[in-house]
Amino acid sequence: MRILFLTHSFNSLAQRLFCELSARGHLVSIEFDIADAVSEEAVALFKPDLILAPFLKRAVPASIWSAHPCFIVHPGVPGDRGPSALDWAIQQGVPTWGVTVLQAEAEMDAGPVWASAQFPMRAARKAAIYRNETTEAAVQAVLQAVDRFAAGNFTPERVPGAAHALMKQADRALDWARMGSADILARIHAADGFPGVADTLFDTPCHLFDAWPESTLRGTPGSLLARRETAICRATADGAVWIGHVKRAGGIKLPATHAFPEACALPEVPLDGWWQAAAPTWQDIAYQEAGGVGTLRFEFYNGAMSTAQCLRLTEAFRWATTRPTRVIVLAGGEDFWSNGIHLNTIESAESPADESWANINAIDDLAEAILTCSSQLTVAALHGNTGAGGCFLARACDAVWVRDGVMLNPHYKNMGNLFGSEFWTYLLPPRVGLDGARAIMHHRLPMTAQEAVQCGFYDACLPSPGFFVDVVRRAAELAASPDLDGRLAAKAEKRAADEAIKPLAAYRAEELAEMRRNFYGFDPSYHVARYHFVARSPHSWTPRHLARHRDLDWKIPA
Ligand code: COA
To answer: How much distance in Å is there from the Cα of 336 to the middle of ligand 1?
Structure first.
């Protein structure tokens, strides 16, 4: 079938559905929901058999749904209607939630239901539930709905329900004097990544994100107790929570201590080294060891890696290499492994060009430390989505194991034609060939975990449930394998041979020469793209590589 996506943006859910439907032989084209007339034009050009709205912020125009079958992916159970569906479910602590695929009609989310899928809820950020459980349920429900539509013998049924209102800041309000930590965490989670919870810090209005539990610090409810790296700890009625990110009025989302430099007056409570803390607290880099395997987790918000985070992770990695282990697993975070350099801290810097330069050099230093590690085998274990430089940073490891369901975007050009670094010119071609590398960089399309393994870019795609259990078991087997010394020797030989042909420093210098032009050259595309990305500016057009129906030589396939 020809399926047209009408969507607010090509977010990770839309990317996943694009890959799943394309893999099943459907021809998918994408139009961003910019204006009714633009959507109508897309429908006229593409003549879709089916329209799918994976992520819309407003209603589909009647001119479209009245003339074409149009499926809406609603992040709620059948009968649930209206905006803020996940926000209400999280804040109300419902035990199960789901996704419904329904047909667009005049009343929002009230059309007949083509399919639905459910999942158990857990205490996590809205964005995490959306990228994981909601996305998996959406894939299941959309594939079923599309099959039913194609079969032509299914009659969708209406499900009675009631619409809830848009969740307002008054519904999200925090009362630090009365609310316990669990309540505060649930409220911030329900608003994270958007819109955050309106509050005040240092007598200044701001929105709060990225809340973590704290188990030992205590103080007068509402008071600010401490800081650690970029996070701030605040007392609740029965304990305390950490706030990792905030957005000041008119500003962008930033690490809390960046947004509020006055936080430096708070007492600093550092952790003792890199070892995983015994009780819950804010810890972005945490190390564990078992069975000859050292595991480094780095839970960086949104997978963005600032200069300081890269420097700290490099320090932690170098320290991990001094441990008596045989394998080091770089486990990233739950939601993201890495999305490359931190575009928000860059945007907020006095000189974004200088900060871009510092950040790319810091992430390259980390990649180089991994590439040149001769004492252990290194494994990147990707539980979360990974994009741009993060995809190549992972490839710097000897093996890359990726969870089934992870979305990858191993390219840079979407960010204002950025050339990219992280040794991608050394790491990518041997895996996929020169033409393959050129195609990946040029097409700028997302890739599923399975596709990444099929094309040879990554090494193994592991089942989603029990991913980390599987990783730990495989890493322990690797550490115990009798030929490990042989593998380490082969790795050192290969590195030396590669170095003799072309030193890592040469790859780095060539990539950075291009990046210098991106950062300091006369073409401001990267700076403009970064500004719009961090400001979350709405799209004003759909890129041609997504809107296939706008290709000049587009013809309806026979
Ligand atoms: N720096 C700062 N923030 C980043 C980031 C980065 N490198 N990558 C992603 N984010 C943030 C987004 O701003 C968004 O923030 P929000 O919490 O305010 O919504 C959040 O992470 C999720 O990103 P989003 O784009 O909504 O997720 P997605 O799953 O739809 O798309 C990517 C994933 C990786 C394709 C997309 O985020 C992207 O292109 N990121 C930039 C990658 C890049 O160019 N890095 C620099 C070169 S190394």
So the answer is: 10
C-alpha triplet 207, 35, 19: angle, nearest 5°:
75
User: Does residue 552 register a pLDDT over 90?
Assistant: no
Please indicate whether residue 253, judged by its CB atom, sits closer than 6 Å to ligand 1. Answer: yes
Looking at the structure, tell me whether residues 60 and 137 fall in a common domain: yes
The DSSP-derived string for 245-274 is EEEETTS-EEEHHHH-GGGGGSPB---SSS
Distance 412 CA to ligand 1 centre (A): 12
Separation of alpha carbons 65 and 266, rounded Å: 56
Residue nearest to atom 41 of ligand 1 (CA): 339
Report pLDDT digits (tens) over 337-374.
999 999 999 999 999 999 999 999 999 999 999 999 99
Please identify, among 134, 165, 196, the residue that sits at the C-terminal boundary of a domain: 165
Pocket lining: 415 vs ligand 1, CB cutoff 6 Å: yes
Q: For the chain, how many structural domains are there in total?
A: 3
Same domain, 500 and 375: yes
pLDDT of 556 > 90? The answer is: no
Rounded CA separation 98/107 (Å) = 20
Q: Is residue 11 in contact with ligand 1, taking CB distance under 6 Å?
A: yes
Q: Determine which residue's CA is closest to atom 10 belonging to ligand 1.
A: 302
